[in-house]
Design goal:
Helix content: 55-70%
Strand order of the largest sheet: 1-2-3-4
Order of helices and strands: EHEEEHEHHHHHHHHHHEEEHEHEHEEHH
Structural class: alpha+beta
Strand content: 15-25%
Number of helices: 17
Shape: elongated
Distance between the termini: 41 Å
Low-confidence stretches: none
Length: about 500
């Protein structure tokens, strides 16, 4: 968001990339660290934005893909997505990505081939009346083009001939005038040049310089004489036969009519005829081609079924592993007696993601049967389940930075303590950034940063600054005691910080 009256907003993130898998994931996106670092920047202006990765302009989608290789953000309401089966399947696939993702690509390719065969069969599916009607139409178009006996380039030649014939009278009149004006009869240019040449020849003997002028004029006379003779010959040969004119006009009308229906050039019309002929051939062999298409669809469906079945088997293998890890993770987060299961069912139709439908089911109390997440868990419980899954996937994907934005919704007391301990464990192997208002979680952090808003006149600014040990304790005391910070509250905060250090030791 751009501050009012500000020309732009600028956000930059600098990553130190050391993880091999992260480098490989970035390389797949054609992004390579410079001196081991990735710098992402986004300049937001009114109506547009400029995105750059290591100084090179990129799209928003490219930036999102690159960021996904480097950090994982758990937002305040993200846990709600766990209620959707698509998200549940996405998490399972991410957990088993090494084997599942290659199989998903095979399923996707098989599904595309299946849909292609399905569309091909559908296009061929018609009753006898429709088939006969289509054949009759194709035969009409093909015969119309064949009857024209088209020759590539003839339309251009005919256009030239038509222009000549349609302007025949104008051509003859102009040629006659040109012949008279350049001729040697009467007042023509040829007669005048001849007279000039005769006058000049009478005086050339008196001045040598006049000899060259006389020769030039003689050449002009010769050229003009040749031109006049050739023009006369052309006029004798030229004919404007009315029947030829009308035949040319009729042929052009035919070609232009075909162009209006089948293509702008004769080559395009011939190509259209070829395609229509292929369609007609197919219809003439309709039963055979339809049966072939049906067999191809069956073959594609069988291949898709095999690919989906293989994918489903691998998913089920990983679902058992994920289930055990989730149960252990939930116990670490103060679910004392918890059962968790991933239930599989088959969709009624294929998708490019396979035919699996899955549902996470859970029981949080002894004696209760397993039920879907949405029917049994609270918001706080759902947040802890998502945290457990994030921790599992972070270890699996080796994402180095995890951001938790106020995941403490709906939890307190001992549960909050357990959540903080879980995040501390994650923090041993990952960089964890957490925004929280719970002192139990805040106390477990290695470093504290205070986010503070300040109002100066009509302008509000947000500042982030690090806290030293004493400042951290005072901030913990504020979270514990509210507006009134007593000595007892400060001592309690100090004790909480000490216990957190012992827990992490």
């Amino acid at each position: 968001m751009i501050r009012e009256n500000a020309p732009y907003a600028l956000v930059e993130l600098l990553f130190q990339v050391e993880n091999t898998k992260a480098k490989e994931a970035l390389a797949a996106l054609d992004i390579y660290p410079e001196d081991g670092q990735i710098l992402m920047s986004r300049k937001i202006m009114d109506g547009r934005s400029i995105n750059k990765i290591n100084g090179e302009t990129s799209t928003v989608s490219q930036m999102k893909a690159a960021a996904a290789c480097l950090l994982d953000i758990h937002g305040q309401h993200e846990h709600q997505s766990l209620l959707y089966e698509e998200k549940q399947l996405e998490i399972l696939d991410a957990y088993g990505r090494e084997k599942i993702f290659p199989e998903k690509e095979k399923v996707k390719a098989a599904y595309q081939e299946y849909k292609k065969c399905q569309a091909e069969l559908k296009s061929l599916d018609m009753d006898e009346e429709q088939k006969n009607r289509e054949m009759a139409f194709l035969e009409f178009e093909i015969n119309e083009i064949e009857k024209a006996s088209l020759v590539p380039g003839e339309d251009e030649e005919l256009e030239k001939q038509y222009r000549k014939l349609s302007n025949g009278r104008r051509i003859i009149d102009s040629l006659q005038s040109a012949h008279a004006l350049t001729g040697y009869d009467g007042q023509g240019a040829g007669e005048a040049v001849g007279e000039a040449l005769r006058e000049l020849s009478r005086v050339t003997e008196y001045d040598e310089q006049l000899e060259s002028l006389s020769q030039t004029l003689s050449e002009v006379d010769g050229l003009l004489n040749d031109f006049n003779r050739e023009l006369s010959s052309y006029m004798d040969d030229i004919t404007f036969d009315e029947s030829v004119f009308y035949e040319t006009e009729r042929r052009l009308d035919l070609l232009n009519g075909l162009k209006a229906k089948y293509g702008q050039r004769i080559e395009e019309i011939q190509e259209y005829q070829k395609k229509q002929q292929e369609k007609l051939n197919k219809l003439q062999k309709y039963e055979e081609i339809f049966e072939d298409a049906r067999e191809e669809l069956k073959k594609a469906e069988k291949q898709l079924e095999t690919a989906c079945s293989r994918l489903s088997e691998i998913r089920k293998e990983y679902s058992h592993q994920l289930k055990e890890k989730v149960i252990q993770g939930l116990k670490d987060l103060n679910f004392l007696d918890v059962q968790f299961a991933i239930m599989f069912s088959r969709r009624s139709s294929f998708t490019e993601n396979g035919y699996d439908e899955i549902q996470y089911e859970i029981s949080t109390n002894p004696g209760e049967s397993l039920k879907p997440l949405g029917k049994i868990v609270s918001g706080g419980e759902l947040s802890r389940i998502m945290l457990a899954l994030k921790a599992i996937l972070a270890d699996r994907d080796q994402i180095e930075t995890l951001i938790f934005d106020e995941i403490d919704t709906g939890i307190s007391g001992r549960t909050a303590q357990k959540v903080s301990e879980k995040m501390a464990v994650i923090g041993h192997h990952h960089q964890v950034l957490c925004i929280t208002h719970l002192p139990q979680i805040a106390a477990m952090a290695d470093s504290h940063f205070e986010i503070e808003k300040q109002v100066e006149g009509t302008k509000t600014t947000t500042q982030i600054h690090p806290l030293d040990e004493e400042a951290s304790i005072r901030e913990l005391a504020r979270l514990l005691g509210g507006a009134q910070i007593t000595g007892a509250v400060l001592e309690n905060a100090r004790e909480m910080k000490k216990l957190a250090r012992e827990c992490k030791a």
